[in-house]
């Protein structure tokens, strides 16, 4: 049977619905799309998918080519660098033709200090095979993967819908039996007691906020589980983990700007939690156990954070270890028996600082490239003088090193294979600076294949995010090579609202300063054009989630600066969402965006930049919005409404909506499906900037 392609884009029906706040009445003609259970909503999304497929049918060959390029450059059967924990080496491996990772371990051999590399060796124990779990499912994701301290139990949780509501189970690793213990609607995170008899886990409230920590005794019914902590303040999320020393269960409650941490002795899991420091509005802190003390990384009178300690026996006074240094943002602290490692960023780059026991022999690790990203990786062992780090740049594939903290020797264990003759020497990376309207210098990271001529003729992609203090640091991407090898320049705009330049960078791009995020991005685009990297008719902007809000905002702010905009799971109707405290995440988001329910000023400010509120008859660039039906972070209806209004308001524009009907915020779950999704996006980008035939 032949199915005819749609003759044109679907026109969503209009059913005006009004909302009123602070004396302002707004009509939303597409509010009906918020009803996921309405067959008309599903029918509309499917009609949009059909139109998108028809409108991009000419790219089918290019999509397949790009998919094969990604696949051909990837070593499909591969093995991660094993990590030692107790008497085992733990690792994941992938097999050609299979979508998901296989989680394994092997015993440590007598005298063995270096991780066993190469093919899986005799004695391998498969702990969890994602491919078996995913059989017959359209989607699969792991939420928790947590082996008990004695190595006997595995707690793991699964999601088969993409809505990030997991079912938690326990596997006896001695017998291979999955116990009857089964806990539905669990959240990410878990922690074992020292003897492995008790498991702590998290559940969410109706607004999808993780608010309860439970204590589960292995082998007993979940109905007998005890709520150890219930966070009633709707601004706060809770988390739970076991310290690296395996001495304490840590329960942390975090809002966007305030923290409170509790601990329970891991060898006494029934004990009442002890608060390290009572919450104080605006003070954030995190802890690490280190012998007789808790290390405390905090921002009390320290905008870019400082490091202190307090007694394990009687938490109270904070003793300074590293004073606040403006411009050096301390991001996290990891404690080992004889060393402390601090993850930090300075001058827009990540770094690692090592402190010997007693805060002596302090040094910063050094790295060779002008642009790079570095961070700790795993490191479950407490009593060790070696740590594992990952290093990457725009041209250097992900690299795993073991670092001797005493001799400072770095040993490369593995660099991610890139098949097909990849050579970093064929590419160049650059750091340039744009100037925002208020004079702020904004860093831009750029990578291109050598030989790209800077005369304005090269096509380019500019990526941005700019929220939650989340930094988009330089990183390597196999898929990106399909752009670079076609002469495309790839750039990352490190705009305010992110954390690239420290805490002030974040503060200057949130709440009533949010517009800086958008004007910074436009300034970066204009700098690329002015410096002859590209031209406006050959430049595509790309961003996702809160970066999708950025995409929607710049579409209204500077429509003629871009040839196209790719907005992935975009937060393009923020005012409507943040006005509704019953929606997932809304209340917790008020400290990021402001509370438009209570503040007329915040309401007016958000309305002034909300992409959906500001759709107008403008000369929009081509826009592709990609979303997922089961996304619980940015609900599918935001981009659906946005595209419907764009098409009705600017009918001469080119607007496409693609909805994954069985996925969540991160899109398709299997690696091959993810590659196909990326091939679709890259083919659209190449076509939009005139590089499809390159």
Provide an overview of this structure.
With 694 residues, the chain is of the alpha+beta class. The protein has a domain at 21-55 and 428-689: Rossmann fold (3-Layer(aba) Sandwich). The chain is 18% helix and 34% strand. The protein is built from twelve helices and 38 strands. The strands form eight sheets. It has an eight-stranded mixed sheet with strand order 31-32-34-33-35-36-37-38, with helices on both faces. Strands 8-9-10-11-12-13-14 form a seven-stranded antiparallel sheet, with no helix packed on it. Strand 12 (198-204) and strand 13 (210-217) form a beta hairpin. The longest helix is centred in the C-terminal third of the chain and has 18 residues, at 671-688. The protein starts with 16 loop residues before the first strand and ends in a 6-residue tail after the last helix.
Q: How does the SSE layout of this entry go?
A:
Layout: E1 17-21, E2 24-28, H1 39-55, H2 60-73, E3 78-79, E4 83-85, E5 88-94, E6 102-107, E7 125-129, H3 130-133, E8 141-147, E9 153-159, E10 166-172, E11 178-192, E12 198-204, E13 210-217, E14 226-230, E15 237-242, E16 248-254, E17 259-265, E18 274-277, E19 285-290, E20 293-298, E21 306-311, E22 319-322, E23 328-335, E24 339-346, E25 349-356, E26 360-364, E27 373-376, E28 386-392, E29 399-404, E30 410-415, E31 427-435, E32 441-449, E33 460-464, H4 481-484, E34 489-493, H5 503-507, H6 515-530, E35 539-544, H7 546-557, E36 564-568, H8 574-578, H9 586-593, H10 600-609, E37 622-628, H11 637-649, E38 655-660, H12 671-688
Parallel strand pairs: 33-34, 33-35, 35-36, 36-37, 37-38
Antiparallel strand pairs: 1-2, 3-5, 4-5, 5-6, 6-7, 8-9, 9-10, 10-11, 11-12, 12-13, 13-14, 15-16, 16-17, 17-18, 19-20, 20-21, 21-22, 23-24, 24-25, 25-26, 27-28, 28-29, 29-30, 31-32, 32-34
Helix pairs in contact: 2-12, 6-7
């Amino acid at each position: 049977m032949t199915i005819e392609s749609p003759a044109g884009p679907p026109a969503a029906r209009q059913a005006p619905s009004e909302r009123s706040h602070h004396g302002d009445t707004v009509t939303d003609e597409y509010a009906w799309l918020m009803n996921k259970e309405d067959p008309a909503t599903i029918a509309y999304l499917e009609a949009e998918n059909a139109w998108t497929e028809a409108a991009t049918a000419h790219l089918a060959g290019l999509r397949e080519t790009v998919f094969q390029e990604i696949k051909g450059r990837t070593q499909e059967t591969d093995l991660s660098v094993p990590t030692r924990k107790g008497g085992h080496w733990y690792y994941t491996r992938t097999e050609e033709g299979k979508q998901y990772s296989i989680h394994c371990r092997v015993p440590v051999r007598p005298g063995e200090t270096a991780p066993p590399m190469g093919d899986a060796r005799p004695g391998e124990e498969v702990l969890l095979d994602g491919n078996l779990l995913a059989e017959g499912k359209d989607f699969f994701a792991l939420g928790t993967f947590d082996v008990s301290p004695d190595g006997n139990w595995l707690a793991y949780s699964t999601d088969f819908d993409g809505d990030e509501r997991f079912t938690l189970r326990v596997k006896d690793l001695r017998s291979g039996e999955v116990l009857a213990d089964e806990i539905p609607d669990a959240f990410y995170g878990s922690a074992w007691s020292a003897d492995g008899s008790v498991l702590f886990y998290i559940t969410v409230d109706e607004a999808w906020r993780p608010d309860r920590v439970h204590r589960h005794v292995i082998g007993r019914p979940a109905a007998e589980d005890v709520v150890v902590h219930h966070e009633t303040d709707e601004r706060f999320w809770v988390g739970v983990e076991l310290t690296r020393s395996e001495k304490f269960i840590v329960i942390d409650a975090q809002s966007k700007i305030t923290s409170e941490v509790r601990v329970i002795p891991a060898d006494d899991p029934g004990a009442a939690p002890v608060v390290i420091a009572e919450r104080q509005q605006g003070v954030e802190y995190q802890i690490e156990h280190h012998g007789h003390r808790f290390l405390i990384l905090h921002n009390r009178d320290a905008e870019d954070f400082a490091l202190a300690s307090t007694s394990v026996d009687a938490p109270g006074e904070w003793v300074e270890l590293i004073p606040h240094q403006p411009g050096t943002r301390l991001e996290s602290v990891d404690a080992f028996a004889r060393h402390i490692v601090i993850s930090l960023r300075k001058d827009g780059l990540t770094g690692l600082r090592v402190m010997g026991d007693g805060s002596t022999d302090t040094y910063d690790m050094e790295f060779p490239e002008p642009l790079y990203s570095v961070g700790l990786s795993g490191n479950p062992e407490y009593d060790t003088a070696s740590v594992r780090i990952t290093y990457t740049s725009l041209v250097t594939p992900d690299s795993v090193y073991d670092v001797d903290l005493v001799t400072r020797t770095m040993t490369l264990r593995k660099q991610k294979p890139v098949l097909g003759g990849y050579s970093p020497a064929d590419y160049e990376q650059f750091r340039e600076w744009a100037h925002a309207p208020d004079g702020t210098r904004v860093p831009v990271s750029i990578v291109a294949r050598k030989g790209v001529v800077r005369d304005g003729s090269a096509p380019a992609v500019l990526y941005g995010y700019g929220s939650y203090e989340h930094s988009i640091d330089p990183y390597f991407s196999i898929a990106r090579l399909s752009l670079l090898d076609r002469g495309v320049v790839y750039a990352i705009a490190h705009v305010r609202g992110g954390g690239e330049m420290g805490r002030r960078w974040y503060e200057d791009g949130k709440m009533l300063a949010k517009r800086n995020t958008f004007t910074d991005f436009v300034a970066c685009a204009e700098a690329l054009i002015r410096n002859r990297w590209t031209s406006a008719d050959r430049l595509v902007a790309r961003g996702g989630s809160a970066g999708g809000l950025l995409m929607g905002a710049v579409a209204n702010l500077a429509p003629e600066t871009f040839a196209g905009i790719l907005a992935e799971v975009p937060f393009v109707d923020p005012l409507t969402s943040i006005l509704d405290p019953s929606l997932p995440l809304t209340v917790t988001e008020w400290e990021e965006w402001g509370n438009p329910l209570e503040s007329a000023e915040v309401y007016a400010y958000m309305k002034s930049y909300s992409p959906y509120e500001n759709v107008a008859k403008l000369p929009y660039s081509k826009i592709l919005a990609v979303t997922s039906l089961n996304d619980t972070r940015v609900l599918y209806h935001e981009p659906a409404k946005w595209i419907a209004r764009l098409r009705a308001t600017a009918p001469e524009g080119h607007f496409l909506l693609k909805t994954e009907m069985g996925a969540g915020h991160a899109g398709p779950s299997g690696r091959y499906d993810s590659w196909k999704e990326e091939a679709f996006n890259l083919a659209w980008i190449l076509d939009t900037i005139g590089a499809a035939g390159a």
